[in-house]
Design a protein that fits this description.
The complex is a heterodimer of chains A (380) and B (396).
Chain A: H1 7-23, H2 26-34, H3 41-49, H4 68-81, H5 87-101, H6 104-115, E1 121-124, E2 140-144, E3 147-158, E4 165-171, E5 182-188, E6 194-200, E7 206-217, E8 222-223, H7 230-265, E9 267-268, E10 271-272, H8 277-303, H9 309-338, H10 349-360, H11 366-375
Parallel strand pairs in A: 1-4
Antiparallel strand pairs in A: 2-3, 3-7, 4-5, 5-8, 6-7, 9-10
Helix pairs in contact in A: 1-4, 4-7, 4-8, 5-6, 5-7, 7-8, 7-9, 7-10, 8-9, 9-10, 9-11
Chain B: H1 7-23, H2 26-33, H3 40-53, H4 71-83, H5 91-104, H6 107-118, E1 124-127, E2 143-147, E3 150-157, E4 168-174, E5 185-191, E6 197-202, E7 211-222, E8 226-227, H7 233-245, H8 251-267, E9 269-270, E10 273-274, H9 279-309, H10 318-340, H11 365-371, H12 382-393
Parallel strand pairs in B: 1-4
Antiparallel strand pairs in B: 2-3, 3-7, 4-5, 5-8, 6-7, 9-10
Helix pairs in contact in B: 1-4, 4-8, 5-6, 5-7, 8-9, 8-10, 9-10, 10-11, 10-12
Classes of the chains: A alpha+beta (380), B alpha+beta (396).
Chain lengths: 380, 396
């Protein structure tokens, strides 16, 4: 048992934190959000230069062969800086599908663009009524010759507007909620029949609703088994949940630091409000919540590589519950302790609260994952 | 980073687990499972078994009978002990006064007291809290005055756990009334058989009598029973309380209790089906299990950190262990109340003897719930822990 980072991991942490410190203060973030894609191509290029975009891929594919711990380090740093760039959909999700189940040809076609920063991806998974059920899919993939035809609608696709390629879940057989008969497909975002409607999200990122009308793709577009892709989808989404847990810990940590700093300087009744015990104890509880979340984010990081899929899912759901609860508490109390200023768009603290809130609403909320753990027989 | 135990650590865990399985007396184990208090004889019997195995004072230096284990091994040992379940080594001797004596005591004191603590020939209790000095411990008033070759002690201690069994008590006494609060206190060892000591039990809301008031009326104590330097007792007390906080998370104990909840909830019916099949109940239980998992990992982080930076500097995150550990212990007793429903009501006084062997286990659920309210109060109340976090971590 060892919680320490290796020398390489420590260097990675220092370099990603250094990069964000120099290029991602709150004012810069505002500017990036106003750019065409809703994030900065320039920053993305720097991520590529530092090797962050190639981190989880094997060296023979041009990556760095890093593991879940390295992803945790990067995601936590991204959470700290409230980064807008599409690391999750591109590197974690699309990269996850390719690295776990992509063919040699698919890897050769797509990984270089991810790694050098020239291409970004989006995960078109959510449907009107699917909510948290990854197997609830009405979008269809029908066989046509060697290839497929995709029809359906996907919603709240993060980075959906800017992405070059979409990773789409679609049903190849069976009924709407059958576990079997779901496949994963790569669709060029500019393919004929793809229509995208972009919009900003509550936490300052951008997403799109996407309609697929008779979109023709080749036989080489399917990742893994088109008849039984759900286990793969679950695994990659668990990667994403685990990454989100780490991002949330970074955001909580920053919220706590910012809030403590604020109550040390804000004066009322002639003294810093941080001298009031009622606020001190609230801040102490925020620390407790953050540390509990940090422990579970580490647990999720380890669990992402568990061999047993059930055990993995149970552990990651447990982490998502803890992180969801802690994030909600830390986020809400950060606003409360800031008082009126915390309600303003101008102050950065509210933006952390909003990101933490949206993380909870992504890939299963606290209640959903609690039910999963409960139905999975708990942890003891 | 690797959160898994190494092969050696797993082998160690299996060895410890097997030893407890084979050696914890069945009667004592059953009492603990049912939330009852083992008797003094039960405890001494078990402590002697541990002593014989060489596991009585595991974290002491080797020269005084310790094991030289790593912090992870200590962690595993404690977890397995709580999960067995078996009585934990008597903290007052093993974790509190013992380390104070081997760290600050005279050679004479080490020779005289340490072997008898290790072999449980002496049962120790703790004389810290007073009626007017709870969280504000440094305001204590019990005084020790030097007269000839003796200390004369007058005053009152309270919340003294298991003083009724004790041979010795270690006391914080005011030896310099003129000095400022913390600086006029000394750490003195007192024979409980001394003339002038009166022990009066305090009955707690669960009906039990594990805590006492201890009165000192012109109690004469040899001067050599002072530990370390006169008026430096507060430093030793802080050292001692720092030791107390590690292991206070009681993760193993809560795990054991969750297994117990699951077992009972599979037997007790509600609406024609076992309570465990109730979705709401199960989700509440799962929520506690998740908190406990997080706590277990937080504790492991603290333990791993301890191994890296050496002892003596308690990690401030250990206050998290106290706060969450106590909340979770309390939550498990609340869940047991939910399982038992209306049969929580019948009252049966549990004695500290063996006369209640045949008592129905249901009678212990409510007392255990009531009794566990103490865990967020003792060992530095959870509010004091928040003060510690506020100052030591957040710098407020």
């Amino acid at each position: 048992m060892d919680f320490d980072l290796s020398e390489e991991q420590r260097l990675l942490k220092e370099s990603v934190e250094g990069l964000l410190k120099s290029s991602y203060d709150f004012d810069s973030r505002k500017k990036y959000a106003k750019e065409k894609d809703g994030w900065s191509r320039d920053v993305w290029g720097k991520f590529a230069e530092q090797g962050l975009l190639g981190l989880p891929f094997p060296e023979e594919d041009g990556g760095f062969g890093a593991g879940a711990v390295e992803t945790m380090i990067v995601m936590e740093a991204l959470g700290h800086a409230l980064v807008l760039e599409p690391y999750l959909p591109t590197v974690i999700v699309a990269g996850g599908f390719l690295r776990r189940a992509g063919s040699a040809a698919q890897k050769a076609a797509h990984l270089p663009g991810i790694i050098d920063g020239s291409k970004t991806f989006a995960f078109a998974q959510l449907e009107k009524n699917s909510r948290w059920d990854l197997g609830d899919v009405t979008t269809t993939a029908k066989k046509k010759g060697d290839g497929w035809i995709i029809d359906g609608e996907k919603f709240v696709v993060l980075n959906g507007e800017a992405a070059d390629t979409l990773v789409v879940t679609a049903r190849t057989a069976g009924g709407q909620r059958d576990r079997s008969g779901v496949g994963v497909f790569l669709v060029a975002a500019d393919a004929k029949g793809v229509s995208r409607k972009g919009y900003p999200t509550q936490d300052g990122q951008r997403a799109a609703d996407i309609t697929f009308t008779g979109v023709e793709i080749g036989a080489d577009a399917v990742i893994g088994d088109p008849a039984n892709g759900l286990p793969l989808i679950e695994q990659v989404v668990d990667d994403a949940r685990s990454a989100l847990c780490a991002e949330a810990v970074g955001a909580m940590d920053e919220s706590l630091t910012t809030t403590v700093e604020y109550i040390k300087t804000r004066k009322q009744f002639g003294v810093p409000i941080g001298s009031f015990q009622v606020l001190q104890h609230r801040a102490a509880d925020m620390f407790v919540a953050t540390e509990q979340a940090r422990s579970m984010a580490m647990f999720a990081t380890m669990a992402a590589e568990f061999d047993d899929a059930k055990e993995r899912a149970n552990a990651i759901s447990a982490a998502k519950v803890q992180v969801g609860k802690s994030g909600k508490f830390v986020g809400q109390q950060s606003i409360q302790l800031h008082g009126g200023i915390g309600m303003t768009m101008e102050a950065k603290i509210g933006h952390y609260f909003k990101r933490l809130t949206m993380i909870e609403q992504t890939f299963g909320d606290t209640e959903y994952h609690l039910t999963q753990v409960s139905n999975g027989g708990g942890l003891i | 980073m690797d959160l898994n135990f190494s092969k050696e650590e797993i082998a160690f865990r299996d060895e410890v687990r097997q030893f407890f399985k084979d050696n914890v007396p069945a009667k004592t184990r059953q009492k603990l499972v049912e939330g009852r208090h083992p008797s003094k004889d039960d405890m001494v019997e078990w402590y002697r078994i541990l002593h014989k195995k060489g596991w009585g004072v595991t974290h002491w230096p080797k020269e005084y009978g310790g094991t030289g284990w790593s912090s992870v091994q200590h962690y595993i040992f404690n977890e397995e002990l709580q999960a067995a379940p078996a009585p934990q080594p008597l903290a007052f001797g093993v974790s509190m006064v013992g380390p104070v004596i081997y760290t600050f005591g005279s050679e004479e004191q080490k020779k005289r007291f340490l072997p008898r603590i290790a072999s449980v020939e002496d049962w120790w209790c703790q004389g810290f809290s007073e009626p007017g000095s709870g969280s504000d411990l440094a305001s204590l008033k019990t005084k020790a005055e030097k007269k000839g070759d003796k200390w004369i002690i007058n005053g009152q201690k309270t919340w003294t756990t298991l003083a009724q069994y004790a041979d010795w008590i270690f006391c914080l006494c005011r030896t310099d009334p003129a000095a400022k609060k913390q600086s006029g206190i000394s750490f003195i060892l007192v024979d409980m058989k001394s003339k002038g000591i009166t022990v009066r039990p305090i009955q707690t809301i669960d009906g039990g009598k594990e805590v006492n008031e201890v009165f000192f009326d012109d109690v004469e104590v040899p001067l050599e029973n002072l530990v370390g330097e006169e008026n430096k007792g507060w430093d030793y007390a802080k050292f001692l309380l720092g030791n107390e906080r590690t292991g206070i998370a009681r993760v193993g104990m809560s795990k054991e209790r969750i297994r117990r909840i699951k077992e009972l909830a599979s037997k007790v019916e509600s609406g024609g089906k076992p309570v465990i099949e109730d979705v709401k109940f199960r989700e509440k239980l799962a929520a506690v299990e998740i908190e406990l998992k997080a706590l277990e990992l937080t504790q492991l982080r603290v333990v791993a950190d301890e191994g890296k930076h050496g002892k003596g500097k308690p990690n401030p995150a250990s206050s998290v262990l106290k706060i969450k550990g106590s909340e979770i212990q309390q939550a498990t007793t609340e869940l047991l109340m939910e399982v038992i429903g209306p049969f929580a009501a019948p009252y049966d006084v549990h004695g500290d003897d063996d006369s209640n062997e045949t008592m129905d286990w249901t009678a212990q659920i409510a007392p255990s719930y009531f009794n566990n309210r103490k865990v967020s109060i003792y060992g530095g109340s959870n509010e004091i822990q928040r003060n510690i976090i506020t100052k030591a971590v957040l710098g407020l």
